[in-house]
Amino acid sequence: MIEINVNLWGIKSTNSPAENTRSFNYFFQKELNNAASAKPLTLIFGAGTYAFDLLEIGSSHKTITDFQLKGAGIGRTILKFSGNEHTFLYLHHLNNFTVSDLSINGAGAKFEGGLWVKGNCQHGLIERVEVYDAHDVSCVVSGPDTSHITIRNCQVFSQRNFTGKSKSMFLAGDTAEFVTFENCQSFSQSKDKKHFSVADHFDTDDAKYVNYLNCTANGEGSQGGVGFWNEGEGEGVKAISTYYGCTAYKTHGGLATSENSIVKAFGMNFIECSAFGWTVWSKGLHPHSSLSLDGGYFKGCGSTPINNRFGGIHIEANTHITNCIFEDTPKGCFNISFYKFGEALPPDSYTYITNCIFDKGVQINSPFYNDGPSIRNLTIQNSIFKVGAYFAALQNPLQYNIRISGCTFFDKGLVLENVNKIKILGNTFTCQSEEITPIERKGLVSGIVQDNLFSGYKDTYLIFNNSTSDQRMNVYFNDYE
Prior knowledge:
1 helix; Pectin_lyase_fold/virulence; Right handed beta helix domain-containing protein; 42 strands; mainly beta
């Protein structure tokens, strides 16, 4: 292995960006042309601040194998990018490489300003790297022919721009595959706490098999920026992501699937992160898109309803919601809501909600349209609706097949308006107040109500007056009164 301290190449903290860039390019290319370059190469940046126009690691003529770039630690080695041209740490045509232990200051960059693994890179590790005040590229991994890249224990502060072709603070995109973000953190607030970014935090954009492990998106103080976004443009599945133990904190939207993307999420936390009207958005219009969320924890997720999105999970596409808990949801919000039309999904589109605990409940809302929303089949099973939580199907969701089974309701249970395909099976309704209606009907309602247990309600407050309170109810109805 060859280890070179770049100070020996004339790269100094006192040099201008142009001087350091010229020296690095000359000696780096000389090293690649050296016969000894066949051996593993390590470049060492000692403690200090080093200004560059563009720091390019790679060669379009051949792939560099077994390469390391090492600093002295976050805050000790600082690469500073500035200027009116493209200026950033540019990694390409690398195999089995590591970049570690440094900070990147992009405050002076007109473009980019951060770190970009950009094309023809395999088996790479970016570890203990900090990026702050970049312009529109902070920490990006993209194709073509880029795979098996790990970003570990890295952090990004307050990207300055998020318009047009700007990237999110952490991004896997442009056909990259097998990218992992592990123990990474993003902050909307700048390090000096003087300004805030509106950039998204973590995005998968046309990349597949992207894993997020214990990552945190911190949007405190910001006026924008989604925690985790997924987007796949074109035919077929274009974006595939899996999340484990990640957290969205005070972001403007927590987790979203868009266009042709498949997302699985386990043990995610969402804390006060729904200022855009939603915390999790399973966006519709594409039959290949789906979301599976297991073990989500939602605390204080709610805002004034925006376009009938009520602050919690907003569902338009194929979705599984399992083992989720909702707490401290603000008044006037729902934990899960449905609202979308446009290109209706196929008749077999679905949503399954299982083993969840709601403090505000679930609402289907389809105003102004008669063709029904995108999702055609909704199942809610084995879930608990606490006092103040209920299920509502409002304003003409006629195209739904709805099944509510094995759930426990306290106080108001269901509010149904113009529903003609509903099954209410084996649920328990327990009244905390005699002035409560367990099942409230508006307009045309038809379906099956069977094997439910009602306790504590007055007879007059049973909407279907076929049973007394505290008695198991077996009623089939087809009621158009």
